[in-house]
């Protein structure tokens, strides 16, 4: 799921204000002077670096160097002769090495920003004893170790040490009463979350504990600070229920608690959080119904509760929350009919209801959500046909309807073909009433990149209209009853990197064009496609999972030989030709340098380039490669010159892969038996 380390706009402008206030002061030549202790501190800092491009120039050990004009340094407006360093902003300056304890000598420092560098090692305790420091940003480095339990940062307002490797218990900044931003996310802090930071600071507004190793029950105590605007404890190991004091924070705008093991019901006291804009409690163990309180949340834009154990139907008050942009509720046990007034949700862009138990028909007024980009209703019990109103879904980019009981594929394709923004279309595991794959009458899908019509038991052949879909990257039409040959034009689709026509009844030889596919010979070695529809960052849905470049032709009736041209597909990761009637020698495939999975089992192959390969599983089901007179004992199965095809093999494999967005294991896997 997406996580942003960026501060909200208010804090971003606050940060800019600090930088402006501490902007370098220009001094005349007669006035230039750094305090000797500051100059020594800066010299010690540079000496601790392995490399930098700061361009600072030290003049021996004298204090005559004008450090106030150096890159990243700000000085005060005090004495005309001696200036004190109050700001050190070295963000994104390609610094490498360690942080020197000499920085503790900058005893007037108010701003210290070393973020987005390659600093590593321990942070010296001296940095946590700078009483005038207002902003400390060490984020996006490789710093590690413990943060000192004792600190003296009495003036600190912004404390950001995120995206490092700090461990132990997290700091609570005792005695720091002015903290407004506290971010320790993406480290390795462990143990319970200590709400003592709320006792220390009277003005805390942002708390981020995300992506650490915190454990124990979700703590009470955050309710002590009515000023709190964001609370993020996602991606940890927290248990228990959400405490009641959390729902007294009427100023909260953002709650991120996804990716823990929290349980209990979703409290109807959430209605008290009237300023809430974003709440994500996905990937926990919440149960019970979703409370019908959304008419009180008139600022809510994002509601995420996927991967829980929620039951019941969608609360009717969702239709009263006109500010909603994203509703993510996939992988629960929700039931009932989807019959909300979607016309009342004009800003809705992402509706993710997949893998529940919804029934009935698709609401025909969904296209009235004029900004809708992602619609996922897959894995439910929906019936009927795709509404004709979907012709008006001009903004829709991703449509997942697989795993339902829809009928009339031809009508569905005719309705959807004209959608100008549609890039991903998944219709698999539908239309299983003996329908035919339409061969003509389809002329659109000009921008479609993914087409998934697998496991529908369709008869017919590979449709010729696919040849006009020049932007296709992924075609999955496996698990049907398609006959005929594999058309040569499939290999001419320049962007195609994933082709799965397995588990059909295709005949003939493998077309030579498949060995000349541009994206597999010259394209990127890995491709991304939106499969896992989860996460929200910077106003955008984050949803990517990777599919390996693949050619999957298994479990058909293909004949002929393995084409030597496959050796030129240097970007191909998966080649599966198993369970066909392919014969002849195995050619030299050593040029396929990125190949991770090769399956040639259950064919009629004889020796060739791979006849000395130690992994004998490659020979399984190839009569002439196993047993006497060869020395290869491939398996205990009874050998036969006529390999058996299994019409059930793999029919659910692709569906499961797409449904869950599973990753692809690396390492060469050479044809294990299916």
From TrEMBL:
It holds the Pfam family LRRNT_2. It comes from the Eukaryota. It is found in: Cell membrane; Membrane. It is a single-pass membrane protein. Its main location: membrane. GO terms for molecular function: ATP binding; protein serine/threonine kinase activity. Residues 1-27 form the signal peptide. Residues 35-76 form the Leucine-rich repeat-containing N-terminal plant-type domain. InterPro entries: Leu-rich_rpt, Leu-rich_rpt_typical-subtyp, LRR_dom_sf, LRR_N_plant-typ, Plant_RL_S/T_kinase. Belongs to the RLP family. This is Leucine-rich repeat-containing N-terminal plant-type domain-containing protein. It comes from Ananas comosus var. bracteatus.
């Amino acid at each position: 799921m997406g996580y942003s380390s960026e501060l909200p706009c208010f804090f971003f402008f606050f940060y800019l204000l600090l930088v402006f206030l501490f902007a370098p002061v220009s001094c005349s030549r007669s006035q230039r002077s750094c305090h000797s202790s500051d100059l020594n501190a800066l010299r010690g800092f540079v000496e601790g670096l392995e490399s930098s491009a700061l361009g600072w120039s030290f003049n021996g050990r004298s204090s005559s160097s004008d450090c106030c004009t150096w890159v990243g340094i700000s000085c005060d407006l005090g004495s005309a002769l001696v200036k004190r360093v109050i700001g050190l902003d070295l963000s994104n300056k390609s610094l490498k090495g360690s942080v020197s304890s000499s920085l503790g000598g900058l005893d007037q420092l108010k701003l210290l920003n070393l973020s987005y560098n390659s600093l590593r090692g321990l942070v010296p305790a001296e940095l946590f004893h700078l009483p005038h420091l207002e902003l400390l940003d060490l984020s996006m480095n490789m710093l590690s170790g413990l943060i000192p339990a004792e600190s003296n940062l009495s003036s600190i307002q912004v404390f950001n040490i995120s995206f490092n490797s700090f461990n132990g218990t997290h700091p609570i900044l005792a005695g720091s009463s002015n903290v407004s931003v506290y971010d320790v996310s993406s480290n390795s802090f462990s143990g319970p979350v200590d709400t003592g930071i709320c006792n220390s600071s009277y003005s805390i507004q942002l708390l981020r504990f995300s992506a650490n190793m915190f454990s124990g029950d979700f703590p009470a105590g955050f309710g002590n600070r009515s000023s709190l605007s964001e609370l993020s404890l996602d991606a940890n190991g927290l248990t228990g229920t959400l405490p009641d004091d959390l729902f007294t924070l009427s100023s909260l705008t953002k709650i991120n608690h996804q990716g823990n093991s929290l349980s209990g019901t979703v409290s109807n006291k959430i209605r008290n959080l009237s300023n809430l804009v974003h709440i994500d409690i996905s990937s926990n163990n919440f149960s019970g119904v979703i409370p019908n309180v959304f008419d009180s949340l008139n600022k809510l834009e994002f509601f995420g509760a996927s991967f829980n154990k929620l039951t019941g139907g969608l609360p009717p008050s969702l239709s009263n929350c006109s500010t909603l942009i994203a509703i993510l509720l996939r992988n629960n046990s929700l039931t009932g009919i989807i019959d909300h007034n979607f016309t009342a949700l004009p800003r809705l862009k992402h509706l993710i209801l997949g893998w529940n138990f919804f029934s009935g028909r698709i609401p025909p007024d969904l296209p009235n959500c004029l900004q809708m980009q992602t619609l996922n209703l897959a894995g439910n019990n929906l019936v009927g046909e795709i509404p004709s109103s979907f012709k008006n879904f001009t903004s829709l980019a991703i449509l997942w309807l697989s795993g339902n009981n829809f009928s009339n594929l031809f009508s569905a394709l005719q309705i959807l073909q004209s959608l100008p923004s549609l890039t991903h279309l998944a219709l698999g595991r539908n239309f299983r009433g003996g329908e035919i794959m339409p061969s003509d009458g389809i002329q659109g899908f000009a921008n479609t990149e993914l087409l998934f019509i697998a496991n529908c038991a369709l008869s017919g052949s590979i449709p010729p209209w696919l040849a006009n879909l020049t932007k296709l990257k992924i075609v999955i039409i496996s698990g049907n009853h398609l006959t005929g040959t594999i058309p040569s034009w499939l290999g001419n689709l320049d962007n195609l990197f994933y082709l799965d026509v397995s588990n059909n009844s295709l005949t003939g030889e493998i077309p030579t064009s498949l060995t000349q596919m541009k994206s597999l010979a010259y394209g990127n070695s890995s491709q991304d496609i939106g499969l896992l529809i989860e996460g929200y960052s910077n106003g955008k849905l984050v949803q990517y999972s990777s599919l390996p470049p693949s050619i999957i032709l298994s479990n058909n009736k293909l004949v002929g030989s393995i084409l030597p041209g496959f050796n030129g597909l240097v970007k191909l990761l998966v080649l599966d030709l198993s369970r066909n009637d392919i014969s002849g020698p195995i050619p030299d495939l050593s040029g396929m340098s990125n190949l991770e999975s090769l399956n040639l089992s259950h064919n009629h192959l004889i020796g060739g380039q791979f006849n000395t390969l130690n992994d004998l599983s490659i020979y399984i089901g190839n009569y002439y490669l196993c047993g006497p007179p060869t020395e290869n004992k491939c398996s205990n199965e009874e050998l036969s010159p006529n390999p058996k095809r299994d019409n059930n093999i793999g029919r659910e494999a692709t569906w499961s892969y797409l449904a869950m967005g599973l990753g692809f294991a690396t390492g060469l896997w050479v044809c294990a038996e299916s």
